[in-house]
Amino acid sequence: MIQNSSTDAMMRAPEQLSMEELEAIGEKFVKKQNMQQKNILASVSYHWPNGVLYYTIDAAFDSTERATIAAGMKMVEDNSCIRFVARTNENDYVDIIPGGGGCYAQVPYRTGRGRMEIGLQRNGCVYEKVVVHELLHSLGFMHEMNRPDRDTYITINWGNIVNSGAAQFYKDEWLGTTPTLPECDDSGNPDGTDYSGCYSGWFTDACQLGYDYTSIMHYGLTSFAIDSSQWVMTPVDTSVTFTGNSVLSALDIAKMECLYYCDGTNPGTCGGHKYGDSGVIESSGLSRGGGCKWLLRVDDGYGIKLSIESFSIACASGSLMVYDGPDDSGTGTNYCDSSVPSLIQSADSSLYIVYTSTDAGNSFKGAWEKVEIICCDSVQLTSTKSDFTDSAYQSLLMGTWTKESNEINDRPIYKKGGYYLAVKTVSSGFYPSWVATATPGSGSGFMFGGSRAPKCPHAVSVWTYFSQNSGNIEDDDSLKVTCGAQCTRAVPTAPTGATMDHDGSNTAGSIITYTCAGGNKVYAMCGNDGQWNPTAVSCDSSVTAGPVTTAGPATTTQAPACTWKLLKNKTLKGAKKMGRPKKSKSAGACLNMCKKKNGCAGIIFKKKKCSMFKSYKKIAKQKKTTAGACV
């Protein structure tokens, strides 16, 4: 719907500032809070869990204003699976208040952030269009005219923009790219300053949807104009004479569906941020571009058990990647073909899962639940790096640490001699980090856990240490804290007619496979408590998938092996890109970038440009081009 003149009137009370001007005031008010996290409309972890935004409304708003706010919420709910629920005791919520001046929203959501604000100045901001606009900011949307590709669709006339509003037109960068421009700074600059040579500091993702002149998130053509008779934005499409909207556009609705993985007004089956005690995830057929992405999350201090009930994914056309943590920054486990998961146990309170498929025949289904995490009674600290082992750490830190009876931030304390392995004391809502220290609870020490403080130190995937030689914090990939538990009792007896496959190991995480008479398999696993689980195995509770897997730093279940190769005068046909091409000195350097990037299936190197791809259909001949893939 094209905005008409009545929309501007709706945005503006007589003798008042416009919504855009009030939002600029509000943006200044919350700039520092918002810029603390610059990924928006991107990571699943910054989306409100279960598509529910909890809110409170300040008592200062009268009944008419409250009805307007409710109408704005209803417009979003009527066009998406997003729901607004009045807060009771939820930690993370949005407080809708008259504000510190102007119209604004604190962004983005992230777990544990607590109270966030939407500011609606009563004299100028409490209009349905403005309410929807600010709600969309809280849900993860940026302005449409800030898109990285906006120059293809509009020309910004910087010479006609007042400096107080210039920040509303800074250009964002695409998620996954490396900015080549400095971050914009409008401090002390005159009206008409040109900011085309900088970027906003924000990273965004438009869900591969087109530019939308009619978005409710698009400003009008004369917003912040020095000369209001001249446009500040000139549409490349000369038929466009108005921009913005008073209602959600079709593309606004499509972006909400994409961002929150909706199926119309219902939750979809292609991803989402799921929080609670249990649930089901499933998907089949073709995935969306970039894959279906789930973040499963339970209360801090607990773990997640994911039971795969059905699984059929061919490596040639898809995969199921599972990461132990809130995103894909760590090492994932790839499942496809005969590499089939059964039980996956997280080391902490979150699992990140990505399903990709280019074939209608692929599918999977799994049930997840919150489970108690048991930390081992003792842990072993080891390293093979000489800078670490040849120092005092050999005797002071390396070896066995024993769990104490007390805790810090609901996490155990381990002790070796006069030193402690414990988390730093933090306030409620913050995540502690593991430290080897002389004082339990201190942030100062000799060794530091790089993961986001899992319940147990043996679940930390990356450690660094203070070098006694260099005086710096050093990386050490060999530095590990492992569970010292052993299952010393007799292994569970094989069911009648079943055979048992056991390599004799009895350390935590060891697995025994029982093949039942019908060919199906069941499993027993040595737990962190030193007990086999289950203690009695039955073929009646069998599953037909692969072994129990603890999704932790030591898990290395892999897809069938392949070899990375460079193929001269070859290209990848039917390939799906991963981000934009990057500069690379050689095809080998390009291939190495791919090998380090999760989900990369191959590359095309040509004219010093490296393009990475998440999938491809076949390898074909092409002169003066080098392809790379794991074949």
Topology:
Blueprint: H1 5-10, H2 19-34, E1 52-57, H3 63-77, E2 83-86, E3 93-97, E4 103-105, E5 115-120, H4 128-139, E6 154-156, E7 173-174, E8 203-204, E9 233-235, H5 250-259, E10 262-263, E11 266-267, E12 271-275, E13 278-284, E14 292-297, E15 302-312, E16 318-323, E17 333-335, E18 343-346, E19 350-357, E20 363-372, E21 378-382, H6 386-389, H7 393-396, E22 399-408, E23 411-416, E24 419-423, E25 434-437, E26 447-449, E27 463-466, E28 473-475, E29 480-483, E30 499-501, E31 511-515, E32 521-526, E33 532-533, E34 549-551, E35 564-573, E36 576-577, E37 582-583, H8 587-596, E38 602-606, E39 609-615, E40 618-630
Parallel strand pairs: 1-2, 1-3, 3-5, 7-8, 12-14, 18-34
Antiparallel strand pairs: 4-5, 6-9, 10-11, 13-20, 14-19, 15-18, 15-20, 16-17, 16-19, 21-22, 21-29, 22-23, 23-24, 24-25, 25-26, 26-27, 27-28, 30-31, 31-32, 32-33, 35-40, 36-39, 37-39, 38-39, 38-40
